[in-house]
Write a structure and sequence with these properties.
It is built from ten helices and eight strands. By secondary structure, the protein is an alpha+beta fold. Strands 1-2-8 form a three-stranded mixed beta sheet. The protein has a three-stranded antiparallel beta sheet with strand order 3-6-7. About 30% of the residues are buried.
């Protein structure tokens, strides 16, 4: 595969361009092929143009694999890693450093989400992972922090999550915090995407969508009057459960458990 230097010599589209719209006509056929064979597999020229505009608006270079896109069930998802979001966060002149750690059963952990202050000490016996936090400290000493729960982000179907759970949950906390700190939209962190294509998004829009979905499922469960109706709804719940997390998932599962008890002989 040609390297980015040779491509840039022919047409400097791989250089950081800042925020400006580009046209697919600015790329050579060789560049298009390189992208569609590597970081933009299966994309149409329209999708490739959209991907490049999002990438270059954030000054992430696809030729250096700082950003990529995937197609899942006809949806185009643009991704970067924790390192990509950290690069964006570091552009803020007030950024000083980032720290993170996993939280386990037995730890002493207290967090004030308003001022970003965290008190964390290891206990004598550390148990299962409960979550992780990340802290960005500005140069003036002020802090912003983010806590994520392990149950929300852990992908039990992934070998890497099984082998490196503490590293990945810390990456999730750092990715989410850096994304919010840099005010990035249109790009998701690879660490927050499950193998089935579900993206764990804590944005207000995503939370509202999850809440609406959960409420709809609870209504369907409550409306069941026979075991056959309930069995059908349970299949629907199983099919979309991956889109629900935290309280919304618990709400649906509690309604299903209650309905099952009502309909059992």
């Amino acid at each position: 595969m040609p390297d980015s230097t040779s491509i840039a010599t022919a047409n400097p589209v791989s250089q950081q361009l800042g925020f400006r719209f580009i046209s697919i006509d600015e790329l050579t056929e060789e560049q298009i092929k390189v992208l569609q064979d590597s970081v933009a597999k299966g994309t149409t020229k329209t999708e490739l143009t959209y991907f490049l505009n999002v990438a270059f608006s954030q000054e992430l270079d696809p030729f250096k694999k700082e950003v990529w896109c995937i197609k899942f069930q006809n949806n185009l998802l643009i991704q970067t890693s924790r390192d990509g979001f950290l690069k964006l966060a570091k552009r803020d002149p007030t950024f000083d450093r980032i720290q993170s750690s996993e939280i386990r059963e037995g730890d002493h952990f207290v967090m004030d989400p308003i001022n970003g202050e965290i008190e964390h000490r290891f206990g004598p016996k550390r148990g299962q992972i409960l979550g992780a936090y990340a802290i960005i400290t500005r140069k003036d000493g002020t802090r912003v922090s983010k806590y994520v729960t392990f149950s929300e982000y852990n992908d039990s179907s992934s070998n890497i999550w099984r082998d490196y759970p503490s590293a990945l949950i810390c990456k999730c906390a750092e990715s989410v915090l850096c994304k919010q700190f840099a005010n990035v939209t249109g790009i998701v962190a690879e660490e927050t995407m499950r193998k089935d294509g579900t993206v764990i998004d804590s944005s207000p829009t995503a939370q509202a969508q999850a809440s609406t979905l959960a409420d709809d499922l609870v209504k369907k469960i409550d409306a069941c009057t026979t075991p056959a109706e309930f069995a059908k709804v349970r299949e629907e719940v199983a099919g979309v459960a991956g889109k629900l997390f935290g309280d919304e998932k618990e709400k649906v599962f509690a309604a299903a458990k209650k309905k099952k008890a009502e309909l059992e002989p």
